[in-house]
Design brief:
Blueprint lengths: L1 H11 L3 H17 L8 E4 L3 E5 L4 E3 L2 E4 L6 E8 L5 E8 L3 E3 L9 E3 L5 E3 L9 E8 L2 E12 L6 E4 L4 E2 L6 E11 L4 E6 L2 E2 L10 E9 L5 E9 L10 E9 L3 E6 L7 E2 L5 E5 L5 E2 L4 E7 L6 E6 L12 E6 L3 E4 L8 E8 L10 E6 L1 E2 L5 E3 L3 E5 L4 E6 L7 E6 L2 E5 L2 E4 L8 E8 L7 E16 L3 E6 L5 E11 L3 E4 L4 E2 L3 E3 L2 E9 L2 H6 L1 E7 L2 E11 L19 H29 L31 H9 L13
Parallel strand pairs: 2-11, 13-21, 23-30, 32-38, 39-46
Antiparallel strand pairs: 1-4, 3-9, 5-6, 5-10, 6-7, 8-9, 10-11, 12-14, 14-18, 15-16, 15-19, 17-18, 19-20, 22-24, 24-27, 25-26, 25-28, 28-29, 31-33, 33-36, 34-35, 34-37, 37-38, 38-40, 40-44, 41-45, 42-44, 43-44, 45-46
Helix pairs in contact: 1-2
């Protein structure tokens, strides 16, 4: 009876006060009803709700009342800053409402399935929410924790731009990595050469990290991490980077990292390397480079010098060459005087005294001394005599000797024998000294051989062809001899300037052909102190060559090929016409063609009796031909003749 009355009161009330009354009545009913009459209410709610910042959150409150009782009240509570519970929304079968006295009065609602809806979730919504279900048979509740997620902004790296010394006693600031505006707080880690640095959070001399967390006005968190490291020389080529790790709803783990960076270190020189960059085999004329390298940073200054030769008294101190910061010594077009020992010295005041800051390199320049030719420069020899040319050479290695005249090889060896000299054997002879094992190492020297004697004509007698009288003909007189012979002509004409050859002279004369010259000919004389020689020129008339009938057509004239084709075409047409005429004549002779427009006559009866006598009629062939040619020409008097 009490339960029925309470139900009616609850069903008729609709105001907040009535709702409060209903809650009190439900509580009273629960107390008045014995334990044997109470029923359990099962409430199911996720223990954790995850949502991204700015999205709407839907927190379900699934419940079941035993006995199928449908008269119950659902209420949502939050935990305030003081640790007390405050109701923010409620719902029963009659109505749903929001409490006006809380911070969620404009942001929450309860949907038809009793789920709590929070609009545009903020970081401040990260708190505990509870759902309580009450009925006449009993009550039940469930609790959930709302978590809000926001990924961080792109990482910011601030590197120490100064030069870090490896000789310091304490760790130096390396870089600061900043991760801003995220929730929950991410973690920042440091890596060197892709290896995690196990940095301590406590200050020490070797390696540690200082972290700082800031809560922004938006409620989001910002984290900065500063790495401190005592650098070593081995860190000069190392790459450092910062990596941030953060979580998102669903247990997703994400990472982001900065671009790798290197440290600018200052460390003293411990080792110096000085080596020849050019090939080990050096010859005169080569360019030589020597590289000096020190492992200090920043790079030191390099000083180069050449040490005096062992046992030298004239130069007791090294010869200073040059200094630079690149560590490269250039020697251009070296000679044998550049052979020797070179020193590279590094100036680094931070290096300890036990470190050797200088290194030496010894080079050897292969060379050839000037080639000596005997006789030298120029030698004059009488014609038909013999001559031996000698050559000698020396150098760092014994050279190979060879002779040539111009581009013609004359043989190998120190001596070259020239027997029975002629004018054609005169000229320049070159002795070359070379070292086959050292390509490009060679020297040479030239001697000019002059053959002396009386002049010799290139030709004893020559015929000069001409076509007509009065034609201009060029005569060439070539004479060998030394001293250079003087050339004279037996006639006058247009003489061109005389040309001197290697061992003689050439003269050209332009003359007009006359009957007298044809009769007497022309002579040229060559003369020097040893004697003279002459050459006779005779004139020979040459008839013009008649043009050949098969010769190709002259350029600009009409080709004969076209005329030949035309003649052949005419001949073919005439032959065809004659064949046609012969065909018609033959057919008419056999009576198989009509004789024209006149009366048709048959010379042979169509039907013959066996006893009939066949008479063969013969006509004069001359008359037949006359009749055939005159057919259609009016020659007949009434009947056309065939």
């Amino acid at each position: 009876m009490v339960v029925v009355v309470a139900a009616r009161i609850m069903g008729s009330a609709g105001s907040p006060k009535a709702l409060l009354c209903r809650s009190l009545l439900l509580a009273a009913l629960i107390l008045l009803t014995g334990p044997e009459c109470q029923a359990d209410i099962e409430v199911s709610i996720p223990p954790v709700m995850e949502v991204r910042l700015g999205e709407d959150a839907l927190i379900p409150c699934t419940h079941a009342v035993s006995g199928g009782e449908d008269l119950h009240l659902v209420e949502w509570f939050i935990m305030d800053k003081n640790g007390e519970q405050r109701r923010v929304a409620y719902s029963d079968q009659a109505q749903r409402g929001v409490d006006k006295g809380t911070e969620y009065k404009d942001r929450v609602s309860v949907d038809s399935s009793y789920s709590l809806v929070i609009k545009a979730v903020d970081v401040s919504d990260e708190r505990t929410f509870s759902c309580q279900v009450t009925s006449s048979s009993g009550s039940g509740s469930g609790v959930t924790q709302l978590k809000v997620y926001e990924p961080p902004e792109p990482l910011e790296l601030t590197q120490n731009s100064g030069t870090l010394s490896v000789t310091g006693d304490y760790a130096s600031e390396i870089a600061t990595c900043s991760s801003k505006n995220s929730n929950p707080l991410p973690t920042v880690s440091w890596y060197k050469d892709e290896q995690l640095l196990n940095a301590s959070s406590e200050i020490n001399k070797e390696l540690y990290v200082v972290s700082r967390t800031v809560k922004e006005t938006s409620g989001l968190l910002s984290l900065s991490s500063t790495l401190y490291l005592r650098p070593k020389k081995s860190d000069k080529d190392s790459e450092f980077r910062c990596k941030v790790t953060y979580t998102m709803p669903g247990g997703e783990v994400h990472t982001a990292e900065t671009e790798p960076f290197r440290l600018t270190l200052h460390y003293y020189t411990e080792n110096v390397d000085f080596a020849l960059a050019s090939p080990q085999l050096i010859k005169e004329g080569d360019d030589v480079q020597m590289h000096c390298e020190a492992d200090g940073s920043p790079p030191p200054e390099y000083y180069f010098s050449k040490l005096p030769a062992s046992g030298s008294q004239a130069q007791e101190s090294p010869q200073d060459l040059e200094s630079n910061s690149e560590g490269i010594l250039h020697l251009r077009q070296v000679t044998k005087a550049d052979s020797g020992t070179y020193r590279c010295q590094v100036l680094d005041f931070d290096s300890p005294p036990e470190v050797v800051l200088e290194k030496e390199v010894t080079i050897y320049v292969h060379y050839l001394d000037p080639v000596i030719v005997n006789p030298s420069k120029k030698v004059t020899v009488n014609m038909s005599d013999s001559l031996v040319l000698g050559c000698s050479g020396s150098g760092s290695k014994t050279p190979v000797l060879s002779w040539r005249k111009g581009k013609e090889s004359m043989g190998a060896g120190a001596d070259l024998a020239l027997n029975s000299l002629t004018y054609h054997m005169a000229g320049k002879y070159t002795c070359q000294a070379s070292v086959p094992s050292i390509p490009g190492l060679q020297r040479e020297e030239t001697v000019q051989v002059v053959v002396e004697g009386k002049p010799e004509m290139e030709k004893g007698e020559s015929k000069s062809p001409f076509h007509t009288m009065g034609e201009m003909v060029k005569l060439t007189c070539t004479a060998f001899g030394h001293p250079e012979p003087e050339i004279r002509w037996s006639v006058t004409g247009e003489e061109k300037p005389r040309q001197s050859s290697a061992n003689g002279a050439v003269s050209e004369l332009l003359v007009e052909v006359t009957p007298e010259l044809v009769q007497s000919g022309v002579q040229c004389w060559a003369e020097n102190k040893y004697g003279s020689d002459k050459q006779q020129f005779q004139f020979e008339i040459v008839s013009p060559t008649p043009p050949s009938s098969l010769a190709p057509p002259v350029e600009g004239e009409e080709s004969q090929g076209g005329s030949t084709v035309a003649v052949i075409a005419v001949c073919v047409c005439v032959l065809l016409l004659l064949l046609i005429v012969a065909f018609f004549y033959f057919m008419q002779r056999r009576g198989q063609l009509p004789c024209g427009g006149g009366e048709k006559r048959s010379l042979t009866p169509k039907e013959l009796n066996p006893d009939d006598t066949v008479v063969e009629m013969k006509t004069d062939r001359r008359n037949e031909q006359t009749g055939l040619l005159s057919h259609g020409g009016g020659g007949g008097s009434g009947t056309n003749q065939c």
